[in-house]
Design brief:
The structure holds two protein chains of two kinds. Chain A is mainly α. Chain A has ten helices and no strands. In chain B, strands 1-2 form a two-stranded antiparallel ribbon. Chain B is globular and about 70 Å long. The chains are: A mainly alpha, B mainly alpha. Chains A and B meet through α1, α2, α3, α6 and α7 of A and α5, α6, α14 and α15 of B. The structure holds fe (ii) ion (2 copies).
């Protein structure tokens, strides 16, 4: 649960960095929309995770007062935005993963999780479509954009493998049908991403390096800076209400 | 695009006094990103929003009226001018297809463009706090608000396009300094409380300025303004709520809120422009029903509204002379430093260079993206034609 929540939260934090910087005004609106969606999903999940824990922690306690090692997001979402091509490749890979995951979680035996997933699935469908359209425009547009997309794919692809790791999920949750085994998502994920890349005249990168660790609290160097910025004000005023 | 996001708004609790004052803040449901779901329509509210609603009704009525054939195209020069005067005189709307005096068109382009530029430059000072918002609820509200401002920019550039100028042309004029944006956005947002002060004071001043524009004689502008004003009123309410929370928080939070109000008060008063005696564009704009109240009238209206709200907030407006004048029913106040306003307008505010530089960088960095999108669209057209 925390892993899904943190994915959404950190993805929103990065997407919101585009605000007032997007290539066109329409895209400013669209990226903010997507950030609002993943932030909204994260808030529902964090609140639920806090309730399940039973230690009285709310969404803000979990978002602002946990240290880096306690964040369970995949490394993909924390990576720098890079240029617009990197952002679009990140979005394509991440949104397609989320879409597959939430589609499966609609059938979770945990009703509340299933309800959150049902809402998220319609949102992520739009995110995937948005990323797909931009992948086409950039892959099959100018040579410069094509080249930037190829470079972006090379940079981002290694971090997609972590999305489908299984080891970190408690076996009981899988057995009880609460959680979904991420390994089962790789095939439908790849078929969607593959189709988009082919249509965009982009090559699917080779699977070689596969960095990992996010689900166990091991992050990349940029994560510390991201959290420092996100958390400092909240932490500077312990116990304050905002 | 996903359905409009409704950010859970903040329940209005507190004293009945606070409730009354808040009736002058937002009271419409379901119109924008930042609108709250549980907000109640206030029966008979005499606030600014009922003026927006009245303008909207007027607009519909004007559209329903038969204007006796669409004069454009058939009549000769004098008749066209007479027709224009008649439409404006009868409080009906001029539409893009209608003939209009060149000065009317130019003046509108200047005003709408300046307004559009203000919306998108205004995203910067508030966007500055997105990554650091101290709660997830506030982060979502702020993100939705800044997104609304981008949307306002879009409606307004679209309204300007109906007058025959492209967005690209207007961007160019903004970046080269030939067109201005509201000088208020040349001040920095130094603390989190500035986000609240901007919402309460800057969006508040924007509403007072803009509500009369909902009845502007140019149809597309009036329609854009109706939509925008509804959203701005939510922004003001959210800013008020942010400050209200800080003012009841820790000593540090309270000090942060007071400091922000101290810094934003006079620049907000200056948003209404120079005093009437020195204002150059007013008379003709009034006759053409683009502008309906003078700068000083609007400034007074803003002070009257805000002074009461400050009392409810429990924050001081930084003006020793502020006081209610029983006989006139208005609040006395000290004028802002118009010399400072002129310096900021002419380019020497704390952030002028930074704001334009930021916009230019975003524009330049996005050039390859826009080029590729255009190239892709062209390829698609060719493919379609060949198929
Ligand atoms: Fe706005
Ligand atoms: Fe606003």
């Amino acid at each position: 649960m925390l892993a899904l929540a943190d994915d959404g939260l950190i993805a929103a934090q990065r997407l919101a960095e585009w605000t007032s910087r997007a290539p066109e005004l329409e895209e400013d609106v669209a990226l903010a929309n997507i950030a609002l969606d993943t932030l909204g999903q994260a808030r529902l999940l964090l609140s639920y995770a806090g309730e399940l824990e039973g230690a009285g922690r709310d969404e803000d306690d979990l978002a602002y007062l946990r240290d880096e090692q306690d964040f369970r997001n995949c490394q993909l979402v924390e990576l720098d935005n890079g240029d617009f091509a990197v952002t679009i490749v990140k979005l394509l890979c991440f949104a397609t993963y989320q879409h597959e995951l939430y589609s499966a979680l609609r059938r979770s035996t945990d009703e509340r999780l299933a309800a959150i997933a049902a809402k998220a699935v319609t949102e992520t469908e739009y995110h995937v479509d948005h990323a797909r359209l931009w992948t086409l425009r950039l892959g099959d547009g100018t040579p410069e954009a094509h080249q930037r997309m190829t470079a972006a794919l090379g940079r981002i692809w290694p971090y997609t493998h972590e999305l489908f790791e299984t080891g970190w999920i408690e076996p009981e949750l899988l057995a009880e049908g609460v959680a979904v085994d991420p390994a089962t998502l790789r095939e439908p994920w790849l078929s969607t991403v593959d189709k988009v890349l082919v249509e965009a005249t982009l090559a699917v990168p080779d699977d070689d390096w596969a960095p990992t660790g996010g689900r166990h609290g091991v992050h990349t160097e940029v994560m510390g800076y991201l959290l420092a910025e996100m958390q400092y004000l909240h932490r500077a005023h312990p116990g304050a209400t905002w | 695009m996903a359905a409009a996001h409704r950010v859970a708004a903040i329940a209005v609790s507190g004293s009945p006094g606070r409730r009354d004052v808040l009736q002058n803040l937002a009271a419409v449901t379901g119109c924008c990103n930042t609108g709250g779901m549980e907000r109640q329509e206030v029966p008979g509210a005499s606030g600014l929003l009922s003026e927006v609603a009245a303008a909207e009704a007027e607009l519909r009525a004007a559209a329903d009226r038969d204007r006796g054939g669409d004069g454009a195209g058939v009549a000769a020069g004098d008749e066209l001018a007479a027709y224009f005067d008649e439409v404006v005189g009868a409080d009906q709307k001029i539409e893009p297809r209608d003939w209009m005096p060149e000065a009317y068109r130019k003046g509108l382009v200047r005003q709408i463009a300046q307004h559009a530029h203000s919306e998108i430059i205004g995203m910067q000072p508030e966007g500055n706090w997105l990554s650091r918002a101290p709660s997830l609820a506030r982060k979502a509200i702020l993100l939705a608000k800044v997104q609304d401002e981008a949307g306002h920019g879009l409606y307004l550039y679209a309204a300007a396009e109906t007058l025959g100028v492209s967005r690209a042309e207007l961007f160019d004029k903004l970046l080269s300094g030939r067109q201005k944006y509201s000088s208020i956005f040349n001040y920095p947002t130094l603390t989190w409380a500035d986000v609240g002060a901007i919402g309460w004071l800057v969006d508040g001043a924007a509403i007072v300025n803009q509500v009369p524009l909902c009845r502007c004689s140019y149809g597309p502008y009036a329609r854009a303004m109706i939509r925008i004003c509804k959203e701005e009123s939510f922004h003001q309410r959210q800013g008020f709520d942010l400050l209200y929370t800080l003012a009841r928080g820790t000593d540090e939070q309270r000090a942060m809120a007071q400091d922000a109000v101290d810094r934003w008060w006079y620049p907000s008063l200056a948003m209404f422009g120079p005093p009437d005696a020195e204002s150059t564009h007013s008379t003709q704009s009034m006759a053409w029903k683009i502008k309906r109240f003078s700068n000083d009238e609007l400034r007074q209206k803003f002070v009257d509204m805000t002074a009461q709200q400050a009392e409810v907030l429990g924050l001081n407006l930084p003006d020793e002379a502020l006081g209610y004048d029983q006989p006139s029913g208005h609040w006395r106040y000290t004028q802002p430093d118009f010399g400072e306003l002129m310096r900021v307008i002419s380019g020497d505010g704390p952030c002028n260079r930074q704001r334009i530089e930021h916009r230019r960088r975003a524009h330049d960095d996005g050039a390859w993206v826009r080029d590729s999108a255009a190239a892709y669209a062209a390829k698609q057209r060719t493919r379609k034609a060949a198929a």
